[in-house]
Here is the input.
Amino acid sequence: MVRQVTATGHPAPVGVAKVAGSTGSVRLAGVSKVFGRGSSAVRALDKIMLEVPPGEFTCLIGASGCGKSTLLSLVAGLEQPTSGTVSVSGRVAIMFQEPALFPWLTAAGNVELALRARGVGRAERRQRAAELLEMVHLTGFGGKRPHELSGGMRQRVALARALAQDADVLLMDEPFGALDAMTRDLLHDELDRVCAGRQLTTLFVTHNVREAVRLGDRVVVLSSRPGRVVDQFDVPIERPRRIDSTPVAELAARITDRLREEMSHGSQ
Amino acid sequence: MDPSDKAEAGTALPAYAERLAWLEAQEAAPPADSRGRRLAAGFWAALWPKVLAVAIVLAIWQAIHVSGWKKLIFPGPGGTLADLWDQLQTGLLWHAIATTAERAVIGFGLAVLIGSVIGALVSRIPPLRAAVGSMITGLQTMPSIAWFPFAIILFGINTTAILFVIVLGAAPSIANGLIAGVDYTPPLLLRAGKMMGLGRLSLYRHLILPASLPAFVAGLRQGWAFAWRSLMAGELLVIIANQPSLGVLLSTDQDQADMQGATSIMIVILVLGIVVHTLFSMADRSIRRRWGLSGTV
Here is the structure.
């Protein structure tokens, strides 16, 4: 079912073309992560089973402290699991809550550095960076430095930079958490468009249930301390979606109830 | 239907573009002043407090002179500045300035080179840091004049001895600046760089080094202060025949009890030091402005 949604929802690539068909996928099998040792050890993640098939947009939702960011770090390879296996096929790019742009480079320079890291030649870099900035509607802002841009623009540069890595798997750690509602809404549209155009496999972490339903093909609910997968919801709502539409709100309400239930378990 | 199809077809685009335009109008930064005006304003803002400070110093100096304290040997600003003016008409002072400046450039250049290499190695190689990290700071606190007997015995009374002490005085500050810069590279940026697939070397070149720049410039500035002091100490101690330098002139004035001459040379030394220091401050400010770290913009 989920795969079907992906297949019909994400047709031909548009924009900067990448070979059709995503190759990226993520599989976590019994993954646990423990920080510290002995009596002070904290179990952040407990036997996580999660599969993100190629081309799917999966949202991870949970209260703060449920190990969402840890999970992304494991998938990104920035940390190693204590037990279990993390298998990722394809190139991985990550977007953080902060844009994490390099302040000494211009917007275009930031994108170009990602291209350079991939070994793209100098002349091609400039052209590709311009294309990517155009894709996130930042044509004409390439020469600006990060501090000269607004929060939303910075996050769009970060998206362009993530796309420049030509990743198959895009990891997003509450990338719009620090933005105002208007800007966030706009970036949701942006992300929809980009993911559809590139057949990206996306793992999106958020604590905003509506955002998860607005964006995801599937929403995975994590429990807190330790983080466990407690439930999954397919999102059969047709795109384009609006965050304030009734189907989105209804499903979000159901997921919120489930989340509340989980949190009350946790506090008992 | 997919949103991107609509966007491509141009039906959904107007609404999107409208919202984007609206948001960007809200977010747009106020237009910056023209570069020329900003520079001029910055120059004036930096200049007037300095002019005022000099005026106050001259006034106090004149007041002491007028009060008659040590009247025979303590010159007033008028006489001293006239003496300085006369000296500036002679080739000797310019020759001395040239010699001193040349030593400063070579010595500081060597210190930058050596300090940067040491800083780069120490910051990236943990055992090396454990071994010599605190030694670098220790070396920094050692008064460089204490190195002169060692240097003179080792190299003799010559320029090499002076350059040796300049390097010892300035290199630790420069190395420490770079080490601090590397240490304070924001971890988030490092993660972003690693995820981009930057290798060890390109991570260093494209991320860690640029991120260290502000701290490195601060190290250069401090290193310069040490280099300039070491150089002056050196020129007073290591007097080489037929090679006039600012230190030699100062020492000659001392021998001849020429207070006006000595004070003139001191003013030259002070001004030269301030000019170079100002250059570093300008570099520092320009970095801050470009990075968005300063309050202006």
User: Anything to note?
Assistant: Chain A has eight helices and nine strands.
